[in-house]
Amino acid sequence: MSAQEVAEEIEEEGSPLFSEWIEPPRISTATGYVLNDTTLGDGCISADSDLGCSSRQPMLLRARGVDGSCDGTRWIPYLHTIAPYDCSIGGDLEAQCASALNANAIFSARSMYAPAPSSSVGMKALRYFLKAEGSNDSFVELADATELPAARFDADTGACVDAMTLLQYRFFTDGATGVVEEARVYVELASVSDVEEMLTFGASFEFVGAGAAASTTRDVSGRPGYIRGLPLLVADGNLDSLQLRTDPLRMLQRSAAGACIQSVEQAASAPSSTAALFGEDAAAHCYELFDNASALKAWCTPTSPPELPLLAALNFSWSSASDAAAYVGAYGDSHPEATSDWTPLEVVVPSSGLTREWHEPSQSCRNVLAMMEVQVLFASVGSAEALAKKVLGVQLVLSSQTVYANRCTLGGA
Questions:
Q1: How many CB atoms lie under 10 A from the CB of residue 249?
Q2: Is there a contact between 80 and 15 (Cβ–Cβ < 8 Å)?
Q3: HSE-up of 127 (CA within 13 Å, CB side)?
Q4: pLDDT, tens digit, 9 for 90 and up, residues 86-106
Q5: Which of helix, strand or coil describes residue 13?
Q6: E strands, 270-363, where?
Q7: 283 and 141: one domain?
C-alpha cells in the first residue's frame, strides 16, 4: 500500500491503536472539540519538571505492539471510546518500576487537561481515583496527584510494589459546545513480579449539560460495534433522510394468552411481543382460533401482506419493490445522517405470495402467514485490540402455509 492509502485506512479506522503512524494526530485550535479531534493535555516532559508544561499536547496511553507488549504511545480521539485493552510490561522490571509502572512519576500537580483545543480556554486539573492493592472493589478519590503512591522495587522478592496495573481516563463533555467539563483518571495498583503480566488501558466519553439532554433522544446499542442483547437500530424513510426509531423493532404482538392481534390498533396495547435484539436467538408464537369452518372461511379474505395485522404492526414501507422496507444500523451507534452506516432490510415473500385464498373443495385457506424470521448477518471488524460487531445484512423471511378446517373423525357426529 502507498503512504496515502495507509493514511486513508487510519483515518477510516478513527481510533489509532499502535505507536507509529505516517502522520501525527490531528490537533485542533478551536474553542470546542469535534469528533476525532485529539484530546489534549499539558505538554510536560516529566512529572518533576516544568519544561513544556505551558504547551498543549495529546493525552497519551501506552500502545500495544504487534507482539502484545506495551510499545510506544497512542492518543485519544474525542468522542471515541477506547475499550479496555491489555499489553504486557516487557523490558527490565526494575527499570519499568521506576517509570512506566510508577503512577507517581507519570502524574504530578502539573498534570492538566485541555477543556478545549484553543489556548483561550484555560487548562484544568485532573481528578484522581485510586484502587490500592487489597482494597475493596471501589475507587477512592484523591485530593491531587501527589497522593498517588510511588511504585518501588523490592530487591528481596524481585517484585514491583504499588505498580500501576490499570490506567483509564473518563471524560465528561458538553455535546453542544464540545468542551470537556471534567476529566478523571482511574488508577489501580498491585504488586507485579513478572514482566509478562498485563497492564490495562482505556478511555471513555460521557455527555453532560445541554449535550446530555440531546443525547438521550438517540439511544445506542454499542459504540461503535453492537453489544449482545441490545436492540437492533432501525430507521425509516429514504436513505438520505432517515428517521431513527426510538423503540426496538417488536414482532408478533399477542395477547397474554398468546392469541395473535386482529388489528394494527391492538398492537400498541398488546401485552406480549418479541423484540429484535442483537446476538440473541428468540422464538415465539401466537395462534388464531376459529369455532368452525364457516368462521375460518369468513376470516380467509384476500388481504394483501401490508394489511395483515402482524405485518402492518411492523410499520415497514411497502410502497414499491425498489424501496427498502426499513434500514438497520450497521453499527450500534449508527447515525441517521451517515448513509454508509445503514443497511437495507430486505423482505423475502414466498413465491406463492401471502394473499389469502379460500379453497372450497378442501375447505382450506391458502397462503396464510405462518412464520416471520429475522436473519441478521454480522461480522467482527476493525483491529484485533478493539473488534466491533458490524451488521452486514438483514432480511425478514416470511413463510406461508395452508390451514384446513377440522374434520370429524370417521363415524363421528
A1: 23
A2: yes
A3: 10
A4: 899 888 999 999 988 999 889
A5: helix
A6: 272-275, 326-329, 342-348, 357-359
A7: no
The H-or-E segment that residue 4 falls in is: helix 3-13
Q: Determine contact, residues 353/367, Cβ cutoff 8 Å.
A: yes
Q: For position 216, what pLDDT does the model report?
A: 44
Would you say residue 412 has pLDDT above 60? no
Ordered DSSP codes for 55-122:
SEEE-EEEEE-TTSBEEEEEE-BTT--EEEEEEE--S-HHHHHHTTT-HHHH--TT-EE-SSSSTTSP
| Host domain of residue 295 | 234-404
C-alpha cell, 302: 384476500
Give whichever of 116-130, 224-238, 317-331, 375-389 has the largest mean pLDDT. Answer: 116-130
Q: What DSSP line would sit under 374-400, residue for residue?
A: EEEEEEEES-TTS-EEEEEEEEEEEEE
Closest CA relative to residue 368, chosen from 376, 381, 359, 377 = 359
What span, in angstroms and rounded, lies between the C-alpha atoms of 372 and 377?
Answer: 16
pLDDT tens, residue by residue, 313-331? 888 887 655 568 899 999 9
200 and 239 assigned to the same domain: no
The reply to whether 248 falls in a domain is yes
Largest Cα separation within the chain, whole Å, is 103
